[in-house]
Structure formats: structure tokens, C-alpha cells
Amino acid sequence: MAKKLPKVPVVIAGMGWAGSIIASELTKAGIKTVGLERGKERKMSDYLMVHDELRFQHREELMQDLSKETITSRNNQGMRALPMRHYGTFIVGDGLGGAGSHWNGQTYRFLPYDFEIKSLTEKRYGKNKIKPEYPLQDWGITYDEMEPYYDTFEKMSGISGETVELYGHRSNPYPTGPMLKTPVLEEFEKAAKKLGYNPYMMPSANLSENYTNPDGIARAACQYCAYCENFGCEYGAKADPVVTTIPVAQKTGNLDLRVHSNVTRILNDGTKATGVVYVDTFTGEEFEQPAEVVVLASYVFNNVRLLLNSGLGKPYNPDTGTGVIGKNYCYQVSSGYSTLYYNDREFNLYAGAGALGIEIPEFTGDNFDHTNENFLHGAGVRSTQYGNRPIANNNAPIGTPAWGEEFKNQSIKYANSVLQVKSQGASLPHRNNYLDLDPTYKDAYGMPLLRMTYDYTEQDRQLVKYISKITRAIAEEMGPDHIDTVGEQAPFNVNVDTNTHNTGGVIMGADPKDSAINSYQQMWDAENVFVVGASAFPHNSCFNPTGTLGALSYRAAEGIGRYLKEGGSLV
Predict the structure, then answer these.
(1) Of the candidate ranges 301-315, 408-422, 484-498, the one whose mean pLDDT is the lowest
(2) How far apart, in Å, do the first and last CA atoms of the chain sit?
(3) Dihedral of CA 302/303/304/308: which sign?
(4) CB-hemisphere CA count at 13 Å for 207?
(5) Which PANTHER family match (predicted)?
(6) DSSP characters over 470-518
(7) Which of 123, 150, 204, 404 could form a disulfide with 160 if both were Cys (CB 3.0 to 4.6 A apart)?
(8) What is residue 286's three-state secondary structure?
(9) What count of other Cβ atoms lies within 10 Å of the Cβ of residue 116?
(10) Distance between CA atoms of 562 and 568, rounded to whole angstroms?
(11) Which 3 state secondary structure label does DSSP give 452?
(12) Other C-beta atoms within 10 Å of 55: how many?
């Protein structure tokens, strides 16, 4: 039987970006808050001398242990879902900071088009443009309403960047200027400008210069060491909850942070939550933590799973299209890229940063005419320089054997002579892409695993065909000796696809009939439960999700503060 603890105003499940932002804001306002994190504690000192590619990238030290908890995956309802046993598609963070510790740092805002995608699409193209199998919907909030929260997140994180006119108005410039433009990025810039495009430096949470944020957190500039994704930053240059929001919350004395505390259920009476049950991952002891407000701020999959395992909200039914928990699971479309090989040119590809890149805005969102296209939204077309670490990078043209003498020769030849023109496309919801509980497999605590039913759609395939022509044209203008272009979207494979941007499942909106939460991330069906994170996105844009996740977290914190004073629905 679980040991019952004294009641607190707020309990948060998950202490990554969403949970730590909410904890920081509430504790600064004097609200006592319990933060539960199932992984271990981390401090910036834990990142010192962590340039160990084998340990962190290939053995995934910062990631969730898939032998204890994973998801099951299938492409359609006719298939049997099987557990994901090794990381390919997703790298789910574990420990204080969550994915905010091992992310790359690319920090975009979503477009005004994204927040009103259904209304604006129908206004421009008519109602028949959105096919019935794609349940697109507005978010219940506009870009203009989101803008102040974006601004707050960017100032806290010290985002480096430059203003782009096609991306909506800004109340302030980025806190720091753009990152260094390397020869690799200059090659892309030159080619893109020749073709009439307007390249700009990618917005980055890898600081371009020393910076002190409004909370007084001082951080040093990026060293371009190339150890961002899958790694914590030993310089503190990459924005990370461990070095930004969590220390601020702890300094107030109002945060009770408990690590190795895995939340398994939300206690509720069907209309309101009374608290959570969590397990001490060392001892196996169960605890009941009563609270006035319960905040779910864990990863997309766990937010959905906790609600389903706790009987909160109506599960989505793909056969009828009814229900909301598990609905509109989306990913991101990354095919359509072109890889460039040079025989007689070399670049310093070993150096870089997770958000060191350059992009064009012309093919994002609805910035181009879709009248004659069989898809909606678009893709960011970009070139990046993350830094090629030696184990992971063995580049060779398509058709080269995967091992043997020829593979070795080609890998050595192109070690510093291969560039990419990439694309990252929007992922729109499909009726048959969703999340639910697996009827067969359970985790180490006997709780059902989450089951993902997902495959790329005709929308995705048409987008890839279109964007691949754009990346090819830019690649040709860059003058390589050989180009490989991926112009077709293959079926989804959970062990192969490499984008890590999962969204949806507890989506926001203006109507409880087609959404689980309102614009403050407050559940329609349980007013004292707030579900915060990328699980709130009704679709995924063509940009990395963290900036929008951060902005929504600040809005949720504002809403939780109001709820504790006023009660009731906030909209």
C-alpha cells in the first residue's frame, strides 16, 4: 500500500523543459511545488569532460532504459505492435532536465499559419482542400497571443538568431546575435541567393556570445565542440533546465525536488485529480502525493500513457473518430534531402554545434501557393554543421557496400568532403495515426505500455516529392561532384527513422469535443490537471518543437497560478 504524504499545492510529473519552467514560475510566486523526476539528479558539473561518443551517443547514457519501459509500434491496425528494443527513431531522455539536456538547441517559433491552420487553409483554398481523413484543427490560440510567451522563453534561454519577415512579428529581437557563419553555411547561402531565396541563420539555444538572462543566470558562449545532441554541455552554452530554470526554482526554497520518483498513476474521481502515485525506483516503495493541482510535464508518450492508465479523458477511437486522448499523434517528415560529395574539396566538418545552420523560409507553412499541390504546409530547407563525430559518420554514396574494402575507402575519401541540403517537413494528423495502450505488453511495474500506430501518409509522400526538387536544385548550385537525393518517402520504421520530434496525443483546442486541453493546457475533463508539452500540439509544424513547448509552458504556469486563486475553467 502506498505511503500517503502531506498535501501540497502543486505536484509536477517530469522535470524537463515544461516541468522546470512551471516550477520556476510558480516557486518565484511563492507557491510550494513538488517536482517528481523518475531519473537521476544532474548538475552542470556532471557534464565536465563528457566528450565520449561511445558512452553518450551509442550507449545512450542520458536516455530512458528500454528494458524497463518502452513503447510498442506498428504501421497500421492490421499489424501486431512489437516493443521498440533499441533507439532508432526516438531518443527519450531520462533524468533531471529530460530531453532539454540532450537536445541540439534549434529553437524556432511556429508560424501564425500553424495556430489557425484549418481556418486559414479554408479561407485561402476552400473547405475541400482539407481531406476528411486529415483532422486538422485550429489550436484555440493565435500567434499574436503566443508571441509574449515566445519572447519570455527566448530571453530565459538566450536564443541566438536573426529576424525573418515571413515568420510573424516579434516584439523584440533575439537576445543574442546569430552564430558564426562557417564556410559550409556560406556555400549554401551563396547557392540559395543565386536561386532567389533569402537564407538566414538558424535560431539557436547554443549561445553565440556570453549572456545573462532575466533571472540572473550567466552562461558562456558556445565553443563549437560538436557535442550537443545526446550530450550535456560542459560549458553551459546550450540552454538546459539543469543550468537555467531548475537552479532558479531551487533558490526560492519553494521547490521540493525528488529524483528517482516514477509517477505511475494520477489519482482522480473522474472529474478532478486528488494527487499522484509514484514509485521510488531504488527501493520500489510506493508513495501517494496529494495535491490541489497535478501537472503532467513528461515526454509526449508518457503524458498520454499516464492519462490512459489513470482513466482520465476519453480515449481516441480511430474507427469512429471520437475521443481525444491519443488523437493526432504526429512526427516529422525528413526525407527529400540531398547529399553532396566533393572529390577535391575538404571542410572542417569535425567542428560544429547542434543549432549551427542556415535555412530558407520560402517553403515553410503556407508561404507558397498550394492551389495546385496535393499537400498542405511545407518544409524548412537547410544546411547544418553539427560536427561529424568519428564513430557515427561514415559517409559514402548510395550503392556503396555497407562493409568491406570499398566501404572503407569511400568513408575515408569523403570524411571531410560531404555536405547536405536537408529538409524538415510538417507532419499533419491522420485519422489512423494515434496512440493507445498496448493490450499485451507491460512495463517493469505491470502497467500497460503505450502503443503507437503510425505510418507516413499520402500528404507526406507528396510533400517529399516536392521538396526534394528544391534541395536538389540548391545542391546542384553548390557544385559537388556527386549528389544523392532521397525523393521518395519510404514507410515508417521505428528502428531506422531518425527524427526525434514526437507530438500530439493530448491536443489543445477551443472545444472539448475535439481537444483534451484548452490553451492554458488545462484538461476539459479535470480542471485541476494541466498537461504540458509537445503532446498538446494538434499537428507538428516544419520546425523543431522546443520553442513552442517552452512558450506554452510559460502560459500554463500563468494559468496554474490563476487557477489556484480563482478555480474553474480558465477559458
Answers:
(1) 484-498
(2) 38
(3) positive
(4) 24
(5) LONG-CHAIN-ALCOHOL OXIDASE
(6) HHHHHHHHT--SEEEE--S-PPP-TTT------EEES-B-S-TTT-SB-
(7) 204
(8) strand
(9) 18
(10) 10
(11) strand
(12) 14
Identity of the residue numbered 495: N
**Nearest-angstrom CA–CA distance, 397 and 407:** 10
Cα separation, 300 vs 290, in Å, equals 24
Backbone angles phi, psi at 305, to 5 degrees: -65, -40
- Chain centroid to Cα 425, Å, comes to 14
Reading the block at residue 388, the C-alpha cell is: 561529424
Relative to beta strand 33-36, strand 8-13 is parallel
Q: How many CB atoms lie within 10 A of CB 229?
A: 21
pLDDT tens digit string along 353-390?
999 999 999 999 999 999 999 999 999 999 999 999 88
Q: Which three cell numbers stand for residue 184?
A: 559550409
Residue 368, all three cell numbers? 507558397
For the question of whether the overall pTM of this predicted structure is more than 0.85, the answer is yes
Distance between CA atoms of 233 and 157, rounded to whole angstroms? 14
210: phi then psi, degrees, rounded to nearest 5: -60, 145
Residue whose entry in the numeric block shows the C-alpha cell 547557392:
191
CA 143 centroid distance within chain? 19
Please tell me the CATH code under which domain 3-68+92-125+142-566 is placed: 3.50.50.60
Measured from the Cβ of residue 322, the count of other Cβ atoms closer than 10 Å reads 13
Give per-residue pLDDT as tens, 466-500. 999 999 999 999 999 999 999 999 999 887 766 68
3-state secondary structure 22-69: HHHHHHHCCCCEEEECCCCCCCHHHHCCCCCHHHHHHCCCCECCCCCC
The residue ranges of every structural domain in the chain are: 3-68+92-125+142-566
User: Looking at residue 59, what is its pLDDT?
Assistant: 86
* 485, 337 contact by CB (below 8 A): yes
pLDDT at 250 over 80: yes
Which cell numbers in the block locate residue 234? 560542459
CA dist 490 → 269, 294, 333, 465, 508 (Å)? 45, 40, 11, 12, 30
477's grid cell? 548550385
Widest CA span of the chain, in angstroms?
70
* 501 counts as catalytic: yes
Whole-number Å distance between alpha carbons of 228 and 524: 38
Which conformational region is residue 321 in: left (phi greater than 0), alpha (psi within -120 to 50 degrees), or beta? Answer: left
Grid cell of 74 as nine digits: 506498428
Report which of 30, 44, 36, 1 is spatially closest to residue 16, judged by C-alpha positions.
36
Task: Please report, rounded to a whole number, the percentage of residues in the chain having pLDDT higher than 90.
Answer: 89
Strands of the 448-453 sheet, one edge to the other = 82-83, 71-74, 448-453, 434-442
- Check the CA dihedral 535-383-108-222 and report its sign: positive
How many CB atoms lie under 10 A from the CB of residue 18? 36
Residue matched to cell numbers 575507402:
409
pLDDT above 70 as % of the chain: 99
**Model confidence pLDDT, tens digit, residues 22-36:** 999 999 999 999 999
Catalytic pick from 377, 430, 501, 539?
501
Residue 498 confidence (pLDDT): 64
